[in-house]
Amino acid sequence: MSPWEDRVKTLIRNGRIVTAQDDYQADLLIDGEVISAIGRSLKTEAGQVVDATGLLVLPGGVDVHTHLDMPFGGTVSSDDFETGTRAAAYGGTTTLIDFAIQSKGQSMRTALDTWVRKAEAKATIDYSFHMIVTDLPDAGIEEMNSLIRDGVTSFKLFMAYPGVLMVDDGTIFKAMKNASRYGGLVCMHAENGSVIDLIVKEALAQGKTAPKYHALTRPTTAEAEATGRAIALAEIADAPVYIVHLSCAEALSKVREARDRGIPAYAETCPQYLFLSIEDYDRPGFEGAKYVFTPPLREKWNQEELWRGLAQDHLQVISTDHCPFCFKEQKELGRDDFTKIPNGGPGVETRLSLVYNGGVRTGKITLNRFVELVSTAPAKMFGLFPRKGAITVGSDADVVLFDPEAEATISASTHHMRIDYSLYEGWRVRGVPRKVFSRGRLIVDGDTFLGRAGAGSFVRRSTYSGL
Ligand code: URP
Ligand code: ZN
Ligand code: ZN
């Protein structure tokens, strides 16, 4: 019987269930789309029995920061909602939150409709959207509230990219005040865009056009200043704030200081900032363009600070900021001018394995904290919990059977993301998803993809309620 046609019961036997809190041996029963029972030696009839001996049974990964099918700098990110969600599933992620972009003067509702149309026939796993706000006239306030009522409960605003996405402090304050009143959460891209723009112009005038100048023109202090300012604006507005893609210790200290004072400031970082560094821009030829994303990679010593931040809850989430552009055709647009290199890098498929291998196996974070960072906390933060991010009766049966001992080599020649390079080419990792269930359906079985375009659903999210 195909699980696509009929309600099927699946019994996962002998697994080690690991959540953000617990770690125990038990069987797990999936009935249709939800988890219906958890217990030792469950006696039940099931159409499908899976032996999970030696495997971790984890809640599906929740990646709250991706950019699929996203226009940027005259091109479009190379994964669409089919290829991107398929790659996510291979990597153990079963829900993602992408970004709909309101262009200036456009209604947010129109922007949302555009992104829903990109996703609905293609997504293989469940998804939602944050709304990128570029324009907030008074009429926009009511629109924000209407989006919140419809389950789009978070908004991203930019302090960088002047003339394109950047908004002023008044707009940020207005958005925060309103969002917090109606249960929304504002996410901030925190970099001082006006200052960076001047530094960039100076560099170009001096003929500094190579990819490494992307990093050298975006100092850590510009990120830290904007992070501190975003938090200050949130404090005045009496609102929570979530800093996206935090890359360095200097910005982290702003979040830590605020949290120590009891301010509801949160932040995510991404694997690229935990594993790669500014030295990657010195690769030969134009290779450094592969690492052009924003914020840029930082000096290596920042990595230990970020890991410490993750372990001590100064950072709450690991997302990917997956925003792939092919090296050959797309990064090439900036060969003579680093400002024309499309900003973004791939990562939706490698998050769990990288963080498990580089975080849990090295003792930097515990296994429970790993689950919290890649699944439970992002689900809570963005109104998906306990439907997502949990292994509990009644939760969606988004389940990953993860082999903690299996090894894999990361490579563009074997990954499923639609991009011609990997940021981690040739890296060996231990810890690999073996089977992935999305709302009860087995969609990844080893190397085989069993999912279906259009099977993923738009998830209406709850209002912000903290962690
Ligand atoms: O370089 C990046 N991060 N591209 C995606 C857009 C953003 O700011 O998140
Ligand atoms: Zn951003
Ligand atoms: Zn992003």
Average pLDDT, rounded to a whole number, is 97
CATH topology of the domain at 60-381: TIM Barrel
Q: What general form does the structure show?
A: globular
Q: CATH architecture of the domain at 60-381, please?
A: Alpha-Beta Barrel
Helix content: 25-40%
Task: Kindly name the structural category.
Answer: alpha/beta
Q: Span from first to last CA?
A: 40 Å
In what range is the share of β-strand residues? 15-25%
**What is the fourth-level CATH superfamily of the domain at 60-381?**
Metal-dependent hydrolases
Helices and strands in order, then pairings?
Blueprint: E1 9-18, E2 23-31, E3 34-39, E4 48-51, E5 56-59, E6 61-66, E7 71-72, E8 75-76, H1 81-90, E9 93-101, H2 108-120, E10 126-132, H3 138-149, E11 154-158, H4 169-182, E12 185-189, H5 193-205, H6 212-216, H7 220-237, E13 241-243, H8 249-260, E14 265-269, H9 271-275, H10 302-311, E15 317-318, H11 351-360, H12 367-381, E16 399-409, E17 428-438, E18 441-445, E19 448-449
Parallel strand pairs: 1-4, 1-5, 6-9, 9-10, 10-11, 11-12, 12-13, 13-14, 14-15
Antiparallel strand pairs: 1-2, 2-3, 5-16, 7-8, 16-17, 17-18, 18-19
Helix pairs in contact: 3-4, 4-7, 7-8
This protein binds N-(aminocarbonyl)-beta-alanine and zinc ion (ZN) (2 copies).
N-(aminocarbonyl)-beta-alanine binds next to loops.
